[in-house]
Amino acid sequence: MKNLMPSAHPGALMKILVFGNPLIEEDSLPLRILPALRKQFPEIEFKEFDPSEELHEEGRNLIILDAVQGIEKVIIISDTKQLNTDAPRYSLHDFDLGITLKLLKKMDLIDSVKIIGVPMEMKEEEAVKEVVKAIRVLENR
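RE: above sequence
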């Protein structure tokens, strides 16, 4: 396994920023599956992230877990161009993460971003299974 992202979490091979709003059912799935992910991957630092925080301070190569509108399966979005901010192909709804990421990239504050997108309507058990697969894909890159 490669060290994908430097982390303050001792021994962490990777850090995944987890977005979500516990007060909004369709936006809380990433937070609801977080305990199972932490159990499955104790070597990974999962950090609950508030959109008001400074995203670029989390490193130059970001990995994000978020609920995404308009998808039917867990996907890995690896190019900010996929986040079409005019007519979104994938909509990261609780704030405009797409615009933020494009700006950070344009300002050379980040090098890359990988977003593990989870369908808002997916059942928790299925989401855990599919996100585990996505994380394993990212670990092997």
